[in-house]
Amino acid sequence: MTQEKQGNDRLYQDLARLLIEELARGDYPVGSRLPAERDLAARFNVSRPTVREAIIALEVQGLVEVRIGSGAYVLRLPGSEDAPGFDATAFEVTEARLLFESEAAALAATQVTDEDLAEIEALLHQIAVENLDPNGTDRADRAFHLAIARATRNTAVFKAVENLWALRASSPEAALMHEKARSANIKPVVEEHTAIFQALRARDPAAARAAMRTHLSAVIEGLLFATEERALEEARRAIAAKRTRYARATA
Amino acid sequence: MTQEKQGNDRLYQDLARLLIEELARGDYPVGSRLPAERDLAARFNVSRPTVREAIIALEVQGLVEVRIGSGAYVLRLPGSEDAPGFDATAFEVTEARLLFESEAAALAATQVTDEDLAEIEALLHQIAVENLDPNGTDRADRAFHLAIARATRNTAVFKAVENLWALRASSPEAALMHEKARSANIKPVVEEHTAIFQALRARDPAAARAAMRTHLSAVIEGLLFATEERALEEARRAIAAKRTRYARATA
DNA sequence: ACCGGTAATTGGTATTACCACTTTTCTGAA
DNA sequence: TTCAGAAAAGTGGTAATACCAATTACCGGT
Hints:
Two copies of one chain form a homodimer.
Chain A: H1 11-25, H2 37-44, H3 48-60, E1 64-67, E2 71-74, H4 90-111, H5 114-132, H6 139-151, H7 155-170, H8 174-183, H9 186-201, H10 205-230, H11 233-250
Antiparallel strand pairs in A: 1-2
The first copy, chain A, binds a DNA duplex (30 and 30 nucleotides) through helix 3.
Keywords (chains A, B): DNA-binding, Transcription, Transcription regulation
Domain HTH gntR-type (chains A, B): 9-77
Pfam families (chains A, B): FCD, GntR
């Protein structure tokens, strides 16, 4: 790769991220044409199929339109909203999770069954195992949170939480969010989840809410920290604003 | 192609559509694994790169998760992102709104702009007018709540609240919820919304959260009351359970 | 200046090969 | 018999190449 690549993901995902970054930076205005696939392949030193996969990822997100025999043209810039679902940033999704999942945890504490608790406890152990592997997935983490949402016995609550996780997965910074934000603090993550489980087992709504808030606050902090590492100066200002915003909202 | 193809699009798009159809038809439940890329290529008589492109399209849409060396696993079924769930009851939706919109209001109180306040105040007046007509709609009510969600400046929060209102509209008891639950108390509804607005104008998160909780608690009470009128004896027991559940969760 | 046809460019698809990772199966030792 | 470790099979990831189809640009003739 001529350019820097960050994640341990697949090449096409890294390349798609790079292209999205260049789009966001304004390298290719709306309506302009991206370089030819062969040129991109040569520039990034990858094969053309890989370039095609990355461009298809952009196409599915509604960022570019591919015209046969002509090229890939920019439809909209990342962040502008008309494409459903793909405009929420990792911070926004996590903030929404902080607000919603905390309340869901409180409700779940009043509704949780012994079967739910058994399932959640099993997932707790899976999370511990999962976190031992630096390249592990976050499937157990996702299942843990969804199990809590399901324990509310409220379909609307569950679907809302489920949608947030779908948004999270589609977020451009999803990988970053998962990687960096967690690798920094493995032990606390397990402890935080344990605290949530214990509050649920105690059927204590207030404790469950508090434990969930603590956990997701830590996730946000890790996310902001990870973002800071690669942020420009202007991004730093936005982060500072977010930090105070979050502090006020949770006060 | 062994199977029928419809569009004049590119092969990968046709194939992606086919796979989504099969997903929707239930051929591959959530969590199950799709056939191997080579098998799909043989079955549809296309090349493996084409299959890969189609799967990447599904992956970007958050439908499947691809695990290296293992396969592509179904994350969610198509349509579950915004397709109205027919199984969510009016009570569930309102309960979810109580949990989520209260937190959204608290966040909005820290983010609301003067323009937002002007819009919300205008909608407040519309709500008052709307409630004078016993056969009026609830458009202003909906716009009021969505404006608050938008004032959070968080796309994920707004979309979640928006989805709840979509669920509400598709709920079987939607009409009942709106009619009965409101006709019983016209004046309080306006007062409750006014309290929410004033808390937002004061930029007071705690007050905004409390005002929203008060309002939606009243909606739930009205909903339960309306339900009681037509409920059988067994329904009464369920309602009593819900009442205590709700009381505990908000305590 | 206009028109039309040809050639170059570009995306679409197929084929093949090899690598890395995962999962299963088999084998040999305890 | 059991089970841990190794081997093998399965699967996705990427590369390289070739050819086709559609578009676009160019250039010649009129």
